[in-house]
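Entry for the shared binder. Reason: the reviewer on the internal report wants the predicted structure included alongside the sequence.
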Amino acid sequence: MKNKIVSTIALLILTTLILSSCLYFVKAEDNVVTNETQNNEENQNNTVNTLSLNEQKEQVEQELQKAEEQLTYVQDELSESIVQLQEMDDKINEYQASLDEVNSQYEELQKRVEESEKQLAEAQEKYDKKLNLLKNRLVAIYKNGETRYLDVLMNSKSIIDFVSKYYVVQKITEYDSKAIDELEETKLELEKINNQLEEDKAQMKLTKVEAEKQTVVLTNTRTVYENHKNSLSESEKQLNAQIETYKKQQQELENLIRYTISGSTYELKYSGGVMIWPTLESSYITSPYGSRLHPIQGIVKNHDGIDIGGKTGDPVYAVADGIVIYSQFNTGGYGNMVMVDHGLDSNGVKIVTLYAHGDKLLKSVGDTVKQGDVIMEMGSTGNSTGPHVHFEVRENGTHVDPKKYLSSTN
């Protein structure tokens, strides 16, 4: 009985072990299947995600390319439109300057006419007085007879009396002759003033007609300009506003430069000769004098000097002896700027040099500088894309090519 119970228990344990083993293998297999399924699903998801990312990348690239093409197209159109508008604006400025010049000429002629009329009246009065005096003198001579002077001389009591009377008669004759000559000169002066007056009056008429014609052209151009300006898109209007602001700053800067030069009253003599290179000899010109494309596409601007590249802190030299007439930060785009008056050359032309975009100013207004003195350090202040010095030479306020004066043009 006891052995039967032991056998039964052993059988139960063995059955349990077999069932456990079977369950383990089934569960393991299920886990494998499950893991494989999950891995397959994840791989599928990863594949899907990878495809989506590639598609998205391609889509983005296509959109970027499309956007770039559209941007280029817009810029081309905008550039053409803006250039046309700015060309009209330049024409308006030219017409306005020409009209101002004509009006100035008219005012000058008007002053000359008024002055000539005044001179003519004074000369006429002077002529009339001399003519009346001469007439009265001739009448007196006629009434007294032509022998009056001879009678005076013949009635002299002595040789001394004769000589004295002869001297008086001679002086009277000289006076009469001089009065006639002066009268003739006054007459010629009258004719000259009158002829000039008539020429000025005729020129005034022509100038007035020219002013009226230019006023009509200016008015019509402004009307076309405003109509074209109103037809711009918003982006074009914004760009055009930037250009107008820039051009206004440039004009204000030009006015400042000319005002500073005209206000310099130092009595200096420019010795002539060549000017030294404004900075280190190893530097070179990055932008020459003359017309160049403005950073805003399509706009051409005259470059009033030369740009010489270098590093921040490089020395900037006075190219010749002179006196500093400007040394401060300029808000018109030149940043830290120095101007040096070198005096009048042999032809009476005032020579001034200008240095811009400095990092640090080293001289003050009124300082006397010698050729080669360091007046500022090179920098990139104001409207600048990198360290350089903008260098100008001005003759009576008008910019000229610096090559005319520099010892070298690296």
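Summary line for the report: The longest helix spans residues 2-144.
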